Recover the amino acids of this structure.
């Protein structure tokens, strides 16, 4: 009897864990994954509003993309822009998308995800040790995967040290 | 007798390996011959090495050299400024390097502008690929 109860409890936990699932839409478009993922993880478009992506994808911005030339062919550029704006914060379904959209003032079009109030809130000192971003293993705040091992699968709750945060919930 | 046979076999195997390493790749050979037609002269691995290792001031400040991201040796794994690893540039380490013309043009187009602040010439591209093919 006890074994059955424990099994049921286990199943319940597994089901809730699965239901919790990725809270961010998985980026599946092969062109976007290939091109945006060439130098950094292909960030899910719901981390920025559509107006930010539109600005970032302008040809004059792309030739100086955070200090590097990331020019694309016009065909690639328009396809990628269409995908990013169609899955942007406030456009993509889900809580994270809505929270990012709500956090960015309407007159602002940040180009860095790390500049959104939502990102800053989630990575504030106390939540994350600021020195960790300087570690050679991390190198850059753009390196989500250094700590969020499932980031490219839309999983951002792992915190890098096993799934303690996941368990705690 | 048996020993001689084994030695001969090993030697033949080693020779076949060396031959395979130098045989090149038809796609890469085509890219190089097209570049040669544009450049008009022969390519030099030495000049390619100099291009790879030199520091430039005409490009973007975070990327003064190819080695800023690709590492000091063509044999080693590089790292982008965003922390993502880059396969070694040497053909001996990354066999499909310089075999896809679109990829070659895309990355010379971007990175020559980032590092040198201008497009690379056919001569420079050919020198670079020639150097990396021998690494």
């Amino acid at each position: 009897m006890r074994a059955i109860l424990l099994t049921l409890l286990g199943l319940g936990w597994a089901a809730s864990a699965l239901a919790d699932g990725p809270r961010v839409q998985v980026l599946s478009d092969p062109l976007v994954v290939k091109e945006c993922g060439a130098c950094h993880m292909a960030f899910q478009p719901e981390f920025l509003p559509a107006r930010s992506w539109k600005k970032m994808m302008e040809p004059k911005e792309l030739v100086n993309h955070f200090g590097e030339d990331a020019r694309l062919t016009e065909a690639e550029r328009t396809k990628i822009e269409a995908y990013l704006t169609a899955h942007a914060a406030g456009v993509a379904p889900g809580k994270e998308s809505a929270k990012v959209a709500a956090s960015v003032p309407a007159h602002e079009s940040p180009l860095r995800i790390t500049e959104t109030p939502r990102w800053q809130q989630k990575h504030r000192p106390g939540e994350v040790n600021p020195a960790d971003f300087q570690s050679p293993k991390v190198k850059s705040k753009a390196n989500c995967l250094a700590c969020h091992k499932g980031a490219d699968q839309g999983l951002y709750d792992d915190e890098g040290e096993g799934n303690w945060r996941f368990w705690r919930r | 007798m048996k020993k001689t046979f084994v030695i001969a076999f090993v030697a033949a195997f080693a020779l076949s390996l060396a031959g395979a390493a130098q045989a090149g790749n038809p796609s890469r050979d085509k890219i190089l011959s097209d570049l040669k037609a544009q450049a008009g002269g022969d390519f030099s691995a030495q000049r390619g090495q100099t291009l790879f290792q030199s520091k430039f001031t005409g490009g973007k400040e975070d990327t003064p050299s190819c080695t800023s991201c690709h590492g000091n040796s063509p044999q080693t794994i590089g790292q982008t400024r965003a922390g993502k690893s880059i396969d070694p540039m040497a053909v001996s380490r990354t066999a499909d390097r310089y075999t896809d013309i679109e990829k070659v043009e895309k990355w010379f187009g971007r990175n020559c502008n980032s590092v040198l602040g201008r497009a690379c010439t056919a001569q420079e591209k050919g020198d670079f690929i020639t150097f990396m093919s021998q690494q």
Q: What stands out?
A: The helical segments of chain A are 2-20, 30-36, 50-56, 59-62, 74-86, 95-103, 117-122, 164-168.
